[in-house]
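Below: protein 1.
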Amino acid sequence: MAGWNGYEKPRRRDDRSFAFLAFLTVVLLETAAFGYTWYTVYFGQSYVRIHFWRRGNWALIALYAVYVLLFAKAFRAYRIGYRRQWEVIVGQILAAITTNTVEYLQLTLIARWNYRLHWKPIFWLSLVDICIGVLWSVVVRTIYTRIFSPDNALLICQESDTEEELAALADRTGSRYQITQTLFESQGFERIRQSLDTGYYTAVIVSDIPEELRNKVVKYCFEQDLICYAAPSITDIMLGASEKIVYFDTQLQYLKDGVELAEESFLKRAGDLVISSLILIFASPLMLLTALLIKLNDGGPVFVHYPMLTKNGEVFHLTRFRIRNNDYEGSWRSEDYVKRFTRIGKFINRTHIAGLPQLFNVLKGEISLVGPRPYTAELTRKCTEECGPEFLFRLRVKAGITGYAQLHGKKRTGVMNRLKLDLMYIENFSVRNDCLILIRSLAPHGK
């Protein structure tokens, strides 16, 4: 495919040098910003009274560069072309804030300050780093898409796959691959191999096809040095989060028993309490005004409570602002639900104010800020009949107000794909992932 100025664009697998140089650029820019702040403010104005020799200054600046590298890697802030742009930008923001927080704590220990002193320079440095990171993400992404073309991809799927399921496999960013042909699993491996042997395709996308054929395709892609995107099975998701161990001369995958570690539970619960309390404090005037408007509208109750399932199948009552007519009976997820909005209810629902009382459920420990979406017992039963008993795996953790499936799923996303997204979150839980999900949920363009 012709690229910039008519020359043939290189394949995406040749982009690693570009990604490394681009990442090195942002690290150097942010380190230079810290070096300027150090020499002109902290060291230059004698905020740090300990005398550093030249090499000491260099060592401190080099250590800052190490922090940038470590936290950028931890938040995946450099994966241009492989992650969506908003994910890279969020990663850059989190990396900048974390790096400068750690650096400031280090400086307070070196200079023996009170932590409330001399924070303004590092605050402004954080803003500069964020601006550098965001600008870098946009510029590098633009250059990347001009230089590197998406891979020509062959899609292998089943005849029974719906249009919605196939559309979910499409690369919405347009930078990784473009599907140019579709083959069905009934056409057999030989037909697939013949298409791949033409040399036109550099990537293969494998949907949820029979395991025997899937294994052949994946191994053939590995043999021919082709990029392979495979839709994971539920077993793949669980094994993907397992620990690799060697027992004598045999490598095993250790799959944990599903019990959350104590430190994970503590951090998640502490984050739920702090964040939900802060939101309730700042949103309390808005919530009081909303309650007053609902009451004045028709004199009915302000809140409604829906019986839902959370961890271990326990029933709790999800609290929301009432946005429908008081005489309506039915599920808040039913089709008729939208037709019965009150005059103020449409606005409350559209602005997501209706869900603010769910924070009281979080404070009570019934649900979490991040987790699988809560379902009623009846809906859970129907989904279990459709997906099998694996659907109940999502009840191993608390339900959440927002979550991985809520962000990445669409209205057309099937129940099985939503289940896989939920299990990906459960099996790969981390505080970093929860932070990314929360920040993305608060972004103006949620999807």
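Below: protein 2.
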Amino acid sequence: MTSVQSDFILEVLPKDIYNKQLAEVNFYETFFAGCTIWANELEKIV
């Protein structure tokens, strides 16, 4: 499966870490580890 992600999605991770939402942190870390394509050119997106 191919997943495409951007840095915008990563903004949720610090909030879950701060609030000690460990299930969500584990989910995001596992999900993002499997991403094969990243939208890195944020200045073109915004």
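Residues 5 and 32 are 8 Å apart (CA to CA).
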